Amino acid sequence: METNWSKVKTVIKQCMSLQSYRMWIEPLDFVRNDSHQFVLSTPNLYSKKRILSNYKDVIETELKNTIGRTCKMKIDVAASKPVSEAAFKAETQRPLPFDDKKFHLYGGRQLQRNFTFDQFVVGDNNDFAYSAALALASSKTNHQNALFLLSDIGLGKSHLSQAIGHHILAKYPDERVFYITVEDFTNEMVFAFKNGAIDRFKQKYRNNCDVLLLEDLHYLSGKERTQIELALTLDTLFEANKKIIFSSCHLPSDIPKLSNKLKSRLTSGLISTIEPPNFRTRVRILNKKSQLNGYKIPPDIMRYLASELITDIRQLESGLAGVASKSLLLGKPIDFPLAESVVNTIADKRKTITLDAIKKMVCKKYNISKTEIESKSRKRSVVRPRQIAIYLARNYTDATLQVIGRSFNRYHATALHSIGAIEKGLKTNRPLREQIKYLQQKLDTGKF
Asked: Last residue of some domain: 45, 77, 109?
């Protein structure tokens, strides 16, 4: 009967778009044939619902044509397979081979354990991105081997990207999956150049990587040497049919000072946008997070939080954790007054933390004027506070990079560079970490 299913898939493939086939039909596996019931399995419940809604009739028709009799289709959700010891070790991020132990300083980031497909809440805002990610992760030989996940901060692109890594490692433990940011790639490349190890660096990414998860592409802006090396690396991976997943807050065409060659590489795969979740999806996200954390939140409070906290998923999580923690600390039941106090705190923080408020706070801290921080001055005593202010503005306001740049009389690319400079400094510069921590505490507590 498995042979019959292969014949059915071959016929269906000719009747629908290749992308739809790869996303929905190709991952279906034959399980068994019970009298007049043909049983298939799919990786998850969402895929099952989508197939039953859109492809049930065409599958049953082709089953009848192939088998010669009427046969109803049934779809089971595949049970999670026990993870072997090898897969368990691999799940937390397998470093790629590199002779020099120093390079493990930049050997990639750990995949977060909870960033899996099972824990991703699918809604109208992200169903296509989820399906594309799952299809790419599930297929061993996928002709569409590149995916670009596009969304604003806090909407789930990192979750989906890492979910692909988890899924591949669980299904194919020997696959070499590497999860890094553009900043990681740049730092490692610079280290390799300085230490005469650039050939090993190239070997590592071009020949010893099966799946590359590359985050924060917008930080490629203006990094010419990184762009050249990355473009050559991507060429090699594409030619070898390796899987590559990109994620960014901006389309390649919107990233300033990005080479045309690299733009072409980054847009050669499928581009999928993740939008902010609607009310129903926000409720489901809250329910999912409550179950995972063991919170017991009344349904009406869930709906209230979902109606008030609409910016992104991180804000939802903050509100949920705030309600649960405040109830526990005060020994009070979770009711509307308590939930309202948490929501008002989050909302007030959003309203009062403005670009001007951040400028004023940073200027006071570093004893410079608002005119200086907005000027063209390149003095270090002005440049560093300006970079810090731009970094905080990006993390504490909803302003776009263009708006932030204009506010400081800077271009979009300069704002990106400032944010990248602070993020890089936070890894190695302890005094800078302390300064940022101090300013963040003032913003978090509203004492600015």
From this structure: 77
CB 38 within 8 A of CB 76: no
- Tell me the range of 294-308, 369-383, 390-404, 412-426 where mean pLDDT is highest: 369-383
Whether pTM > 0.70 for this model: the answer is: no
Same domain, 323 and 307: yes
Distances (CA, A) of 156 to 43, 44, 309: 20, 18, 16
286 lies in the same domain as 269: no
Q: Work out the average pLDDT over 119-141.
A: 83
Question: Is there a single domain that holds both residue 231 and residue 95?
Answer: yes
CATH of the domain at 139: 3.40.50.300
The pLDDT tens digits of the residues spanning 4-52 come to 888 888 888 887 766 677 777 888 888 888 767 888 888 777 678 778 8
Tally the domains of the chain.
Answer: 4
